[in-house]
Amino acid sequence: MSKVVIERRGSLTILTLNRPEVHNCVDGETAVAIASAIDEFGRDAGAHVLVVTGAGTRSFCSGADLKNVQTLMQHSWVDRTGPMGFARLDPGKPTIAAVNGYCFAGGMELAAWCDFRIAAANAEFGALNRRWGVPFTDGGTQRFARIVGQGNALYLVETGVRIDAQRALAMGLVQEVVPTGEALARALALAERIAAYPQASVYADRAATLATFGLSLPDGLRVEAGTCVPTAYDPEMAAGLQRFVSGDRPEAPRPATDVRTPRA
After folding, report:
1. For domain 4-194, which CATH number applies: 3.90.226.10, 3.30.230.10, 3.40.50.720, 1.10.3720.10?
2. What is each CA distance from 116 to 34, 69, 152, 164, in whole angstroms?
3. Hey, which end of the chain has fewer CB within 10 Å, N or C?
4. 241-251, pLDDT tens digit by residue?
5. What gap in Å lies between CA 205 and CA 190, rounded to an integer?
6. Could you tell me what percentage of the chain is helix, strand and coil, using 3-state DSSP and rounding each to the nearest 5?
């Protein structure tokens, strides 16, 4: 049975970590499959949005497979991607994490690698690797602070605190909380919206947003101009303006209603 399952639905690609018996943790073989899937998604002109999730409802990803950690340091993609197969890759297209259940340690890094995160009400997050002295080596020290701010990032990585979906939402670690079992469906609904937009401007705006973090406003504006302004001449934009002139006003997506985890 494949440790990573790839499903194509039109212009959407779903990457599912498929090791539910070990909470979808990542060993070397899994890391190679993740890297290969991201690389292929990036090169496929017909694939517009990648959704990353975990098999079952109990776990998104519990991080590195600590029983086989040596395989994460020796696989064929490690120099290009980092140990878990994704940290240094950018497909240049939108990516969404559909987080169900446990999202710990390297799993939290994988979720943070994605552009944004939809969490099920039963999702939990935490730097549980802190208990065994395992460092973050797949982008956590860089992406957590960019997403939740330095204070919240240090709170997470230094204490190893375990938080629920609502606390993650309040921090900005996740963008929506939906009922248990519905994270993937919600992520796919948003992915379909994104995939239906003219893609040149989506890619350019995404690239400029990611490339300018930490730059001064003038420097960031220069990057934005160089990256985004050329898409104003893209044929898809011209077609979109024609639709606007004709009265086309598609309904914009709205955030899902926040769902609180029921008390046990």
Report:
1. 3.90.226.10
2. 18, 27, 17, 17
3. C
4. 688 678 877 77
5. 17
6. 45, 15, 35
